[in-house]
Amino acid sequence: MNTLVQTTPWQRITEELLLIVGSSGLITDESESLVYECDGLAIYRQRPKLVVLPTTTEQVAAILKVCDRYRVPFVARGSGTGLSGGALPLADGILIVTARMNQILDVDLANQQVVVQPGVINAWVTQAVADQGYYYAPDPSSQIICSIGGNVAENSGGVHCLKYGVTTNHVLGLTVVLPNGEIVELGGAVPEMPGYDLTGVFVGSEGTLGIATEIRLRVLKQAEAIAVLLADFTTIEAAGETVSAIIRAGIIPAGMEIMDNLSINAVEDVVATNCYPRDAGAVLLVEVDGLEAEVPVLQERVSQICYAQGARHVRIATAAEERLRLWKGRKAAFAAAGRLSPNYFVQDGVIPRSQLATVLKEIEQLSQRSGYRIANVFHAGDGNLHPLILYDQAVPGALAEVEALGGEILKLCVRLGGSISGEHGIGSDKACFMPEMFSPADLETMQQVRSAFDPKRLANPEKLFPTPRTCGEGAHHVNAYPQVEVF
Amino acid sequence: MNTLVQTTPWQRITEELLLIVGSSGLITDESESLVYECDGLAIYRQRPKLVVLPTTTEQVAAILKVCDRYRVPFVARGSGTGLSGGALPLADGILIVTARMNQILDVDLANQQVVVQPGVINAWVTQAVADQGYYYAPDPSSQIICSIGGNVAENSGGVHCLKYGVTTNHVLGLTVVLPNGEIVELGGAVPEMPGYDLTGVFVGSEGTLGIATEIRLRVLKQAEAIAVLLADFTTIEAAGETVSAIIRAGIIPAGMEIMDNLSINAVEDVVATNCYPRDAGAVLLVEVDGLEAEVPVLQERVSQICYAQGARHVRIATAAEERLRLWKGRKAAFAAAGRLSPNYFVQDGVIPRSQLATVLKEIEQLSQRSGYRIANVFHAGDGNLHPLILYDQAVPGALAEVEALGGEILKLCVRLGGSISGEHGIGSDKACFMPEMFSPADLETMQQVRSAFDPKRLANPEKLFPTPRTCGEGAHHVNAYPQVEVF
């Protein structure tokens, strides 16, 4: 007979995980797990019960088998730069950190593909192929720190997504560990495999379907030439109309960004580019790329369209240093907004491009009605808005009012045929807004698909979809927003 | 009390369907349903029990509710041009023909979108927007007759998919009737909606997840200039290497097609283009498009690469008439193959582009070992092969040998990291080959997703996935291949 030893389930789970990852791969100490209690949406905080740091697909599979057996929920975390609380841990769950899965497994330039582990940093992919003239296109502002695994979970974008698409357009295949610990291959080395496109379902699923442990990425050839144009307009509506006119002319710039007068003055106060005119209603930044023979034609056409739409002046930069200078203000926009006000709340919504002028007018009305100033900075080509609501958290009730205002902006986006998230994801932050956008039948279909991958609801539960606990009667939506530098 | 009337379930189903679509929308007569007994893969034939021709989403929903209530399986059919038997009816099932759902519902050029019913013909979409300078990119060879609904089911491609992508890259949103009759919206007017990308799952699901009744398509601006190059090589391997060299140079042509010596001589016999040299090992057709300023640069670079890779001659056409002349031989290739032999069997497989030379050598070896001549015509840029196996059906046993040889080619594609279907789909034809490509766990995950949409397995059962009845012990795979003109 064995000696009876009384152990709790968590003790047994800990022992089993130790056998899988060793003591260096397991964090049980509360002070050590502190660093993992939140992601880029820093106001939601929760320490996980255990933190595991696997290095291989097999270790992840073994860990998820333990989770499945004990019915313990898990959350995967890359670099923790997400802005919607998608990597927020669970008090009674395991946090699986992919930081040690940081190997580039294969570089196959003949087929323009790179296979990486999920902890590989976005910028490393480009670094691995740049000397051969290639790059990885999706470029979130956090690209020097964010992980590919996180990019896959959030279907991350960036300023060049207008022409080159978001993460899902660059993921060819995935090795995925399902929540029951089974390993499956989705997609592969050739595009458009038969059967259902489960690669596409997994990308952007915000950690709710399993953990990707190998990711096959497409890399692109670098453009021969690039030009950046900065056009200034007396009204933001004119800048918005110009975006539509450029697209209508058959030109697809690599990126198109708009900043309004409030943002322009904030960045000139802080970084003094001396390029952004303080009296402009808005500036429009346009980047075009392509062949040496093509870019001069494109920049000339874009410039003509800007003038035809009422631009006062169009500045064109082709040399790298001068291009960076024009981008500098845009890149500093969020940090600069922090100077305008003690706090700001950044919203992320999308509208069809044709609705740009309408949405801007309505946001202005919402601002006037509520008394809160709103700075507008956005990926205009994609219709992806980032309104920054300025407020002071020290004023009682301000946060709740600002949250309500942010919600009004999301509902406005939906009403105009758009979306409640452009690139930051739903996560913990916007799950309660999903019914604004999807019918009960639409959401139920998604839940059925979720059950196909995760019948026990162990993979990042309470994210992405509304739950009675987080959005039902009596759920109190406490929130505040950090001043982080995002794009 | 009601009078007791004994009716069979099919009588009751017929009555219920009559109430939904009226007598003009229902075909019960066997002679009238004859036309629906097969699709482009004409050798599989089966008359359906009933044929219904709805006109609206609501009618489709009502029909599927009847199917759900009586547990009657259904198959959707567009124009019936599919080449894998995806629209093959079931003896005890309902065939839902979308031919009367032929309305273009919305044209929104400001957002480059068109909303259509599924019976709209592919070419009509371009016709609806061409005068404004737009077009719909996916161009299967059957585009003047195939329906958008069928294109969505099969994720159809075409010769311009190398640069512009296949159907899934051009579908933004879908109204779908689920097999239980519920109506859901997948995707929408803006790309990259939050939640799971179910639009992507539905496109290419070959009718197994429900019926798309409204389809939101992206349309593109027409290119300013186009050039077609015809390069002739002494070996097909050199033509294959040239394809890789062009891509390596950072050029993405609109299309790249290769034809081998056998195909060249067949088309010159039949259509006499007088452009394709009869002594060439292979010809490579390259189409480049873009700005007026860009195309001359691209054509010059492609031409130089062709010569550097050993091309004997490169012919360049920019005028529309001359471009069509260079394309003429390629377009006639399949029809011409019919002259080489009493019958031919067209295979559809994919390999990574880097494996082109290898796969061609191995196909040549398979040809020599089996004694069957194989003509090679393919979308080389995508690695999408269409080997044509020439045979005579009158020779006893020939068909079975050719089928086996076709299967060997598919296995070869999988072994080289490729796929068993490039663009014709799996349907009835290749379901038994799915386990060559996917592990049991991979297939099980797809089945789970299928159950999320269709728990009762009413939507096009026995297609796409292997079943014991069609692929198990004792299943007899009888087949022969029609001589249809495909691209």
From TrEMBL, chains A, B:
PROSITE patterns: FAD_PCMH (PS51387). Its cofactor is FAD. It comes from the Bacteria. GO terms for molecular function: (S)-2-hydroxy-acid oxidase activity; FAD binding. Residues 44-222 form the FAD-binding PCMH-type domain. Gene3D superfamilies: 3.30.465.10, 3.30.70.2740, Vanillyl-alcohol Oxidase, Chain A, domain 4. InterPro entries: FAD-bd_oxidored_4_C, FAD-bd_PCMH, FAD-bd_PCMH-like_sf, FAD-bd_PCMH_sub2, FAD-linked_Oxase-like_C, FAD-linked_OxidoTrans_Type4, GlcD, Oxid_FAD_bind_N. The keyword Transcription regulation does not apply. GO terms for cellular component: glycolate oxidase complex. Keywords: FAD, Flavoprotein, Oxidoreductase. The keyword Flavoprotein applies. PANTHER family: GLYCOLATE OXIDASE SUBUNIT GLCD. NCBIfam families: glcD (TIGR00387). This is Glycolate oxidase subunit GlcD.
